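Quality-control log, excerpt.
Job 1 of 2 completed; input and output follow.
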Amino acid sequence: MPAPDVRTATPAEIDQCVATIVLAFSSDPAARWAFVEPHVYFEIFPRFVRAFGGKAFDHGSAHQIAGCAAALWIPPGIEPDEEAMVALIESAVAESDREAMSGVFEQMAAFRPAEPHWYLPLIGTDPAKQGNGYGSALLRHALAICDRQKLAAYLEATSARNVPLYQRHGFAALGTIQVGTSPPITPMLRKPR
């Protein structure tokens, strides 16, 4: 099977990339812990994707494969839109869970490397297309950029099922993030090669 064609997402492909990630995360433990009700998930999570990883579109670091897989990489020195994320959480997450969610994000920030690095907040494949190597192709593409620039890559694995994939691509677990009833999240770092 030929290698998937990884391309930078164009402005016309933003909605398609966001929709792909929303589908990919529809059974993700952390995403569904935060947005439990299906109607809330499908209403709020697309906006959350844009706030969390949308700056990748602004910086040419949103990559996609044929409309069925996407990865949003945040360049060194750029941060997700925290203000928009907080507003979405306050509007959609049960008040009883907001403190735990805030604690999760505080722990995520504590694990982020201090040195310049690429951050992968979101990567996903349409569930109907999973198992075809698209996630690996997206990772290889971006990690080659990290290596050329001699920069580390950082992510949080929100599903234990994905940890082995990231390990195959050189990421190492840094610990575990968990607050209250949140599912465990694994912060992971890959040094440049």
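Job 2 of 2 completed; input and output follow.
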Amino acid sequence: MEKTMRIALFVLGFALVIMAVANVTHEKFSRLRDYTLDPVVHTAKERERQLDCLAKNIYFEAGNESFEGKVAVAQVTMNRVQSGKFPPDVCAVVYQKSTILGKIICQFSWYCDNSGHAPIRSKDNYDESMIAAKKVLLEDYKLPGLDEALYYHADNIDPRWGKPKVIKIGHHIFYKD
């Protein structure tokens, strides 16, 4: 009787293990089936181009800001790329222009006022901008509270956007849509 009980418990335990493995395997295959790959293939050259665009945007928008301020500008740029409301490419977001009533408007003022064609004046600020760009673009580094931020401006202007304010970091005020 005792031997029969052990065999029954062994068979029951073995069956439970088989069911657990089958359940986990089914779950994994379901996730793989639902997983879609990013349709854009990123080459090393393309990543370098994106890093350069993002680093320039950080440098010209927040070069004199703290590292946190630089990351915030990078994060807003990436939020735009991922939002579906702006171009799905870092450089296209950074260099995006619109024409309103015959006037060219850039998403980032430095590009329209030709600062972007000026030489880098502070290697240290540019290097820190590049570090921030790498952390945000390649490591998906994010500051808390800025997940929905798509806009910002310097704290010395008031564009009267009427958008919900998210946070102020350094000399920039950040907004969501």
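Post-run check on job 2. The chain has one domain: 44-176.
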